[in-house]
Amino acid sequence: MPPTHPAVGIGYRWNLDEWTHANLARFDVLEVTLDHCLAGNEALRAAIFDLVGHIPLTAHGIGLSIGTDVPLDLAYLDEIAALLDRLNAPAYSEHLAFTKVPGRDLGNLLPLPKTEAVAESVIAKVHIVQSRISVPFLLENITYVFDWPDSELSDAEFLGLICRETGAGILLDVENLYLNGRNHGFDPHAFLDALPVRTVNEVHLAGGMTLREETLPRPFFADSHSHPVPDAALDLLDYALGRQDPATIVLERDDRLEATDEILADIAHIRARLDRRYGKIHVGAAVGSAA
Amino acid sequence: MSERLLDRQLSLLEYLTSAAGIFGAGDVAAHVAPGIHRGLLHLEARFSHQKRMAKIKGVLSWTFELMGSHRDQIIRDFVESCPPVSISRLDNARQFHDFLSTHWTFQEPEPPCLLDVAACEIAYASVRGSSTPRLEPVRDMAGRGIRRRRNVVMVRCRHDVRAILEGGSGAAEAAERDTPLAISLPHGADHPIVSELSPELFELVEVLDDFFDFEELSELPQVSGLLADLAERGLIEVRL
User: What gap in Å lies between CA A172 and CA A142, rounded to an integer?
Assistant: First the structure.
């Protein structure tokens, strides 16, 4: 089957609730962060549930911490499973990372040592996740500030090994890949070449910022979700679409939310790239691909 | 034998959430994560800390204003004694408020109204996030009664801080006086409503966790007027 035009949308943010509703027709899909539903207040939950039936929703998680070396929190997973059903989400994505240990929750994604032993441990957990949810499970590549010195596998090898052994799909964060390439000195195209064909189900895009500090060995490119998507990341998206056929592309924005014109411009840029590749379609025509 | 992954993760997070990791004091990074550039670990710690403090400040904005020149030291002390345990902004703000309460246990807070302002800001955030059912009295087979609405938070302040919260006054103008407040978000309102109650009424509303037959209050003078007033302000639910 020929590749289909991916649905394009944004991550739903409570602070932009009114604006999102006013601009709903501009998006094919919204991504809901399930942990905002779980940890958020009643009003936020109600606002998210109100979206069901009005626009397709995809489901993303930030609280599973699949890489923490302790058994998975099954009660949390069951809550996730119930939310997935309620949102009628086509898939559930999480980060290949860890964020917490017993007694501490950093609230930020940290990398895992990329070894076969750690991959085996994650593989076992992915199987558990898959056994408790009713939709495909996707793993996302993260951006990282540092890497563990005992990592033996490349980013693509580590992610590819886990996905191959479990059948999990991939949420390809193009901005993360772009930033990691710049921060850690590798070619992001090689990462994309190493991923098996048609394993990417969803894509994230965002825009970050550059930090220059005395304590750092070189300028650091931070995934701040605060600025327009750089052209270089859109070029990488183009390159990825040569071998991948994602159902959705989601723009993530968490800072400088008042710059909504930038959000709409990013969406227009993404659509322009897709139109060039797949041919022009009208906004909303791809909705079915995400439902 | 190599160190267990969990042990490495534990010591890394302990470092990243510590004052040493966040503020760059000491030189323990080499022991915690050998082979990882210290500047990068410090950056990671700072990123996470800034994210957490942004959540807390988002809830406690006036409290942060009032801390003034003490703020940096208070935040540092907070970091040292309260590692993050949740990603929720309200949980983190509550943790900070609890820390402030402990911090000022044996001396007067600076400014004196600081804890009252923090308590009210926590209450604001709580009611903003709660659902706001309509006010009509409910007819129910389970029997008649009254109870406090679920989205009402009771705060007993030692200072009248309402002018500060409304943005029109500094800490110096917060008069020291017992100020029993009920904070609510009535149906359709954009902003929380703050009602000052008499001490007696405050105590009554505070204990109304479950439905209470208002016939038992009939000995109180002007009870029907009182109940109508509380219902009008959206503080109680009435079951007829």
Answer: 9
**Sign of the dihedral through C-alpha B179, B185, B187, B188:** positive
For chain A, the domains span 7-290
CA separation (Å) from B147 to B150, B157, B212?
Answer: 9, 22, 6
Q: Cβ contacts (< 8 Å) between A104 and chain B: which residues?
A: 13-14, 17, 83-85
Through-space distance between the first and last CA atoms of chain A, rounded to whole angstroms: 18
Across chain B, the runs of DSSP E, i.e. the strands, are 145-148, 152-159, 176-184, 193-196, 236-239
Best of B48, B49, B53, B127 to disrupt the A interface (most A CBs within 10 Å) is: B48
CA-closest candidate to residue A30, choices A60, A62, A58, A61 = A58
Nearest to A106 among B13, B24, B39 (CB): B13
A287 pLDDT more than 80? no
Residue A78 CB partners (closer than 8 Å, separation 6+): A132
- A43: Cα separation from own chain's centroid: 25
| Distance from C-alpha of A237 to C-alpha of A173, rounded to nearest angstrom | 9
Residue A109 reports pLDDT greater than 90? yes
Q: Which residues of chain B lie closer than 8 angstroms to A39, CB-CB?
A: 86-88, 91
* Domain made up of A7-290: CATH architecture: Alpha-Beta Barrel (3.20)
Its pTM stands at: 0.88
**Chain A positions in Cβ-Cβ contact with residue B85 (cut-off 8 Å):** 103-105
For the four alpha carbons of A128, A129, A134 and A135, in that order, the dihedral sign comes to: negative
| pLDDT for B33 | 77
Cross-strand pairs, B179: B157
Is the CB of residue B149 less than 8 Å away from at least one CB of chain A?
A: no
Min Cα–Cα distance to chain A from B130, Å: 5
Q: Is A113 on the interface with B (CB under 8 A)?
A: yes
State the smallest CA–CA distance between residue A156 and chain B in angstroms.
Answer: 21
Q: Which residue has the tokens 């006013």?
A: A22
Distance from CA of A144 to the nearest CA of B (A): 9
Question: How far is residue A159's CA from residue A114's CA, in Å, rounded to a whole number?
Answer: 9
| Domains in chain B with CATH codes | 113-240 (3.90.930.50)
More confident site: B108 or B6:
B6
Residue B25 has pLDDT above 80, yes or no: no
Residues A244/A199, Cβ–Cβ less than 8 Å: yes
